[in-house]
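Cross-posting from the chemistry board since nobody answered there.

I work mostly on the small-molecule side, so proteins are not my area. We synthesized S-adenosylmethionine and want a rough idea of how it might sit in this target. Sequence and SMILES are below. Is it possible to get a predicted 3D structure of the two together?
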Amino acid sequence: MAIPFLKWAGGKRWFTSRYLDILPQKYNRYIEPFVGSGALFFALEPQEAVIGDINKPLVETYMAIKDDWEQVLEYLRTHSVQHSKEYYYSVRATLPETIHQRAARFIYLNRTCWNGLYRVNKAGNFNVPIGTKTNIILDTDDFKKLAKLLENTTIMHSDFEAIIDSAQEGDLVFADPPYTVKHNNNGFVKYNEDMFKWEDQVRLRDAIVRATERNVKIIVTNANHSSIIELYSNFKRKVISRASVIAASNNNRGTYEELIIAKY
Ligand SMILES: C[S@@+](CC[C@H](N)C(=O)[O-])C[C@H]1O[C@@H](n2cnc3c(N)ncnc32)[C@H](O)[C@@H]1O
């Protein structure tokens, strides 16, 4: 089981530690169109995969590790040695030339910024302030292993629809989109509304329906919310909880619940 190298809003590491048995036993290619930090992709280590995301610097980071992980690690080590508040803001202010340098910058900023948040301003520049974490090289890092895993993986900078539409009979699509409705108190609700509108949720459902008509196996995660239940009313659904203990108070019921939509 490989470990994600990024901290990501909505990351599914908690899911991989408790719910892997929900997945089908057998499938051809593994396809993840909202890959983010790729928690499930890394947990499954599929033989052949397609991963994609709309976030270009993120996708480029995967590409750079696949192309030359040693260069990326070398640049990351340089950041690690030089890290300070001034250094953080100077790195944040400049976009380097090569994809390996940009990947190391992306990982460095992800590990040292406030809460591992990814946010850009209107001009598209990363604008998250420095956080409290100072560990830049992690014990869990294994870029060599990641690069090996990425060898048989097609990495796409793309909207989800084209990726799902490319799935064929027997492939597994795991779709973990931004959650549009308020389902917990993670503070990303407004941000996600701007990024991923209700029309996108409908467009996703339609792409998923088309995929199932081609006998593609699908798993979609989303908020346990009436609007989503209605959207996927023809699908088998399961409510899962990300809380380790059941909340005692009724007020908290639903706070940590998510929906798994499956057809395979
Ligand atoms: C909830 S996160 C996925 C988290 C991932 N499962 C993980 O373990 O880290 C949703 C991802 O969807 C991406 N995204 C947003 N809109 C998209 C779109 N239209 N097409 C593809 N990806 C999109 C975001 O950049 C973000 O990385």
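Reply from a structural biologist on the board:
Welcome over. Reading the output above for you: The longest helix spans residues 56-82. Residues 182-193, 245-249 have pLDDT under 50 and may be disordered. Happy to explain the token format if needed.
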